[in-house]
Amino acid sequence: SRAIKIAPSILSADFANFGAECQAIGAQGADWVHVDVMDGHFVPNITFGPATCAAIRPHIKGVMDVHLMIAPVDAYLEAFAKAGADVISVHLEAGAHMHRSLQTIRALGVKAGICINPATGIESVEYLLDQIDLINVMTVNPGFGGQKFIMSQLEKVRRLRALIGERPIHIEIDGGVTIETAPLVAAAGADVLVAGSAVFSGGSVANPAPYGENIRAI
Ligand code: DX5
Ligand code: ZN
């Protein structure tokens, strides 16, 4: 069986205290920190950019997993690599030349991820399997935390696991992961679970213990 990693998303963290929040989830058992970058163009929300990633990097002891919900992407890849991203995921839907964008990410010495929205089928990543280290399956429509898990994506995860076979590619699940849906996606073949609202609910920088309880529950 596959070891499951939890990647709390700071989209649901205290926006006035990102450094302290990253330290808190690291101390409470988070393996990765998922950083949701949004540009208000590819998705209907705006969060933060490379400067925030660089600022929180020293406060993250594990993997900084940067999820770019931006379009176009190529102009910003170097800035996120310089900011210290360990993984950079780009959306297949963000442009016409995503194979090239993935090559650029790897050329920058960063692990490359492709992210697919709920409407996008897995045949769309068939010719990317030798270019990626991770596939992020969106189980909500990107832009916001706290949304409901889209159940139709479970079958997609199962098919993806079969397609990937023995290749060293992570299947990351992003959106609506809770104590109810986590076992479903793990059984379907996922190994990295993003969770924002489910991890940060009930806690704060001053009282981070619930973060650990939430992470262990998932
Ligand atoms: C949504 C982001 C997700 C989101 C997950 O566009 O990509 O990472 O923060 O939040 P929850 O876990 O609350 O659904
Ligand atoms: Zn995300």
UniProtKB/TrEMBL annotation:
UniProt keyword list: Carbohydrate metabolism, Cobalt, Isomerase, Manganese, Metal-binding, Zinc
CDD domains membership: RPE
Residues engaged in binding a divalent metal cation: H34, D36, H67, D174
Active site residues per record: D36 (proton acceptor), D174 (proton donor)
UniProt keyword annotation of Nucleotidyltransferase present: no
PROSITE patterns named in the record: RIBUL_P_3_EPIMER_1, RIBUL_P_3_EPIMER_2
GO MF: D-ribulose-phosphate 3-epimerase activity; metal ion binding
Reactions catalysed: D-ribulose 5-phosphate = D-xylulose 5-phosphate
GO cellular component, one term: cytoplasm
Leading EC class: isomerase
Cofactor(s) annotated in UniProt: a divalent metal cation; Fe(2+); Co(2+); Zn(2+)
Entry's EC annotation: 5.1.3.1
One Pfam family from the record: Ribul_P_3_epim
UniProt KW Kinase keyword: no
Pathway(s) where this gene product acts: Carbohydrate degradation
Biological process annotations from GO: pentose catabolic process; pentose-phosphate shunt
Binding-site list for substrate: S9, H67, G143, F144, G145, G146, D174, G175, G176, G196, S197
InterPro entries tied to this protein: Aldolase_TIM (IPR013785), Ribul_P_3_epim (IPR026019), Ribul_P_3_epim-like (IPR000056), RibuloseP-bd_barrel (IPR011060)
Cofactor comment: Binds 1 divalent metal cation per subunit.
Listed PANTHER family: RIBULOSE-5-PHOSPHATE-3-EPIMERASE
Family that this chain belongs to: Belongs to the ribulose-phosphate 3-epimerase family.
Official protein name in the record: Ribulose-phosphate 3-epimerase
Organism (species): Pseudogemmobacter humi
